[in-house]
């Protein structure tokens, strides 16, 4: 009997949350669509009458409890404390409030609609292909979006499985944007959410100190994550919509809990879940579409444990793809027959990374489109991005990253290597400020790239070369022009050397005064894969090294001359000259630290040519 009364109470509460009061004796469904038949099937009518009788019974019980209470408050969603003989009513009010909170939690986690069989097949084949291995599926269904428990790397997302690093690195870049540059806006994410935060720059006094990550609260990190996921999904949806994917098993376990989704509930919910086919995905995947940012953020806030669970990375990727639209994703790509998750190691393709950074699943990293003739073209990045991308492959001359990705709005870059994605960032936006000569260099390079139809090979036609000279107002001596054009095409490296030797007055970069400013700044590199930390006091003799993500601080110096060789030659001459001991000591003190090298330095030099880097401890790893 008690169980029946509890069920009656729950039913009454559900009805009380509707826009109008319950009407127990209704003879036909409310708000019947125009033109819809009024006749009900026996099964529907039976369920409706049962529901109305239960609601009426619950109402009688609630009215009886009010009469018994001396000073009982009206139950309208706000609980007012009672005293004295109203203690029984107070207990009832608390129970009612808990039930309403549970109902709201279930409502926030409205599991949404199921994909059709055709949609599930298209999605699964697009992501994994028809011959995906169980190992790759295991990688992608066992990677949550979770912060590092280590205080020194607490701002970073931890990677446990190979494969989803491209997804995690993209989210990490946006999380850093909010933690570094918008700390004061990590308030309640569901209220007064600004439409865009990208246009405003903050002063240095508002930056989070780079060595103060241990002070970040779990609440601030969670809100930064919610903002980041929401922003990425709306970018994928052309700032018009965001699709959020969840799992049907969440609802089953939430009904058995107190209504609040937790990590423990997610672990239990996913105990027997295995995704090995499109059918498996269709059975459990549920989606909701949001056009309001406030509603989407509220949903994401309720779903944080879902994204922290082992299915988090896969659900986020699916959400991004559906926000863009599966047909639009395929139209973005140069070869839509290939899976987005690449074999044999299950890495995220460049198309996935580009989708998360710029909202389009294009496969290339150059600016704009490249016309191949015959109506064919290759698609690149079409707009300025919030956070950027650099790759080791450019230093190996396999590709050319355009200015959109190299110069994002915020000094944060996803770093790509042959097999992994990591993140580099600067706590100060001034690292992207250019002096006069750097701006000139960027102008010339951009004009050259606009004429480069080789796919980033670094050469242009004679006609294109003359266009570059006109566009950049560069006045080369006739003999230099004839020499560069003698082979029928112009190579960037040869053209650039001529520009370096050409005086500024003629449009070149040679500075006869030798007073070019030296740029010095700090970068931080984060690798989310837990590795052995061999630095300093972290390792005690005979003990196993600590396994944790790596955060490395780099000191970056861009020399005052336009080639490292000239700069280092000057340092050698200066330090070896001098006529007395004090002069020698002075030069010795001024001598910079010897440069250190790692593959990451090659990536950094694609953004800041001639950069010299130094760090303490182990070299930063991009694999």
UniProtKB/TrEMBL annotation:
It comes from the Eukaryota. Residues 1-48, 567-600 are annotated as: Disordered. It catalyses: Thiol-dependent hydrolysis of ester, thioester, amide, peptide and isopeptide bonds formed by the C-terminal Gly of ubiquitin (a 76-residue protein attached to proteins as an intracellular targeting signal). Residues 582-591 have a biased composition (Basic and acidic residues). Pfam families: MINDY-3_4_CD. Keywords: Ubl conjugation pathway. Residues 124-494 form the Deubiquitinating enzyme MINDY-3/4 conserved domain. GO terms for molecular function: cysteine-type deubiquitinase activity; K48-linked deubiquitinase activity. Its EC number is 3.4.19.12. It is an enzyme of class 3 (hydrolase). SUPFAM superfamilies: EF-hand. Belongs to the MINDY deubiquitinase family. FAM188 subfamily. This is ubiquitinyl hydrolase 1. The lineage of its organism: Eukaryota, Viridiplantae, Streptophyta, Embryophyta, Tracheophyta.
């Amino acid at each position: 009997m008690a169980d029946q009364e509890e069920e009656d109470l729950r039913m009454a509460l559900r009805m009380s949350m509707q826009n109008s009061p319950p009407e127990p004796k209704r003879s036909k469904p409310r708000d019947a669509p125009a033109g819809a038949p009024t006749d009900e099937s026996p099964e529907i009518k039976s369920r409706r009458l049962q529901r109305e009788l239960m609601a009426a019974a619950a109402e009688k019980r609630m009215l009886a409890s009010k009469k018994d209470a001396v000073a009982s408050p009206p139950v309208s969603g706000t609980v007012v404390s009672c005293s004295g003989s109203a203690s029984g009513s107070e207990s009832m009010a608390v129970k009612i409030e808990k039930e309403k909170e549970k109902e709201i939690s279930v409502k926030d986690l409205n599991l949404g609609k199921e994909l059709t069989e055709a949609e599930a097949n298209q999605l699964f084949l697009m992501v994994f292909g028809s011959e995906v291995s169980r190992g790759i599926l295991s990688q992608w269904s066992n990677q949550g979006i979770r912060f590092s428990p280590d205080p020194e790397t607490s701002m970073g997302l931890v990677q446990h499985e190979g494969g989803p690093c491209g997804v995690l690195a993209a989210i990490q870049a946006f999380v850093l944007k909010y933690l570094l540059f918008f700390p004061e806006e990590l308030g309640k994410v569901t209220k007064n959410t600004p439409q865009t935060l990208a246009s405003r720059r903050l002063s240095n006094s508002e930056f989070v100190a780079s060595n103060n990550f241990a002070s970040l609260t779990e609440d601030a990190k969670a809100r930064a994550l919610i903002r980041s996921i929401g922003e990425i999904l709306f970018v994928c949806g052309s700032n018009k919509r965001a699709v959020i994917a969840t799992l049907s098993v969440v609802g089953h376990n939430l009904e058995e809990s107190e209504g609040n989704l937790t990590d423990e509930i997610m672990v239990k919910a996913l105990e027997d879940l295995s995704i090995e086919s499109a059918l498996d995905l269709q059975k459990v995947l549920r989606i909701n579409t949001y056009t309001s940012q406030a509603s989407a953020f509220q949903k994401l806030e309720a779903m944080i444990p879902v994204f922290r669970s082992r299915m988090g990375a896969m659900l986020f990727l699916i959400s991004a793809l559906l926000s863009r639209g599966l047909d639009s994703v395929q139209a973005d790509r140069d070869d839509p027959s290939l899976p987005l998750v690449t074999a044999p190691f299950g890495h995220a393709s460049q198309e996935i990374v580009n989708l998360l950074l710029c909202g389009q699943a294009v496969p290339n990293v150059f600016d704009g489109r490249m016309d191949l003739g015959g109506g064919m073209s290759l698609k690149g990045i079409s707009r300025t991005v919030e956070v950027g991308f650099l790759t080791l492959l450019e230093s190996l001359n396999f590709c050319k990253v355009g200015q959109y990705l190299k110069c994002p709005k915020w000094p944060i870059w996803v770093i790509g290597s042959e097999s992994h994605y990591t993140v580099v960032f600067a706590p100060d936006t001034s690292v992207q400020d250019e002096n006069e000569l750097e701006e000139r260099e960027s102008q010339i390079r951009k004009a050259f790239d606009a004429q480069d139809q080789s796919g980033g090979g670094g050469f242009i036609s004679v006609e294109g070369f003359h266009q570059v000279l006109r566009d950049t107002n560069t006045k080369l001596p006739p003999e230099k022009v004839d020499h560069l054009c003698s082979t029928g095409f112009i190579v960037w490296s040869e053209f650039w050397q001529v520009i370096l030797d050409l005086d500024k007055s003629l449009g070149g970069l040679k500075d006869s005064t030798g007073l070019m400013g030296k740029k010095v700044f700090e970068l931080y590199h984060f690798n989310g894969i837990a590795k052995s930390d061999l630095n300093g006091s972290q390792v005690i003799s005979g003990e196993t090294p600590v396994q944790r993500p790596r955060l490395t601080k780099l000191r970056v110096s861009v020399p005052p001359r336009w080639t490292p060789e000239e700069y280092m030659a000057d340092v050698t001459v200066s330090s070896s000259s001098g006529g007395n001991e004090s002069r020698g000591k002075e030069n010795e003190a001024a001598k910079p630290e010897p440069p250190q090298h790692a593959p990451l330095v090659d990536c950094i030099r694609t953004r800041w040519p001639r950069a010299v880097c130094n760090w303490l401890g182990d070299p930063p790893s991009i694999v």
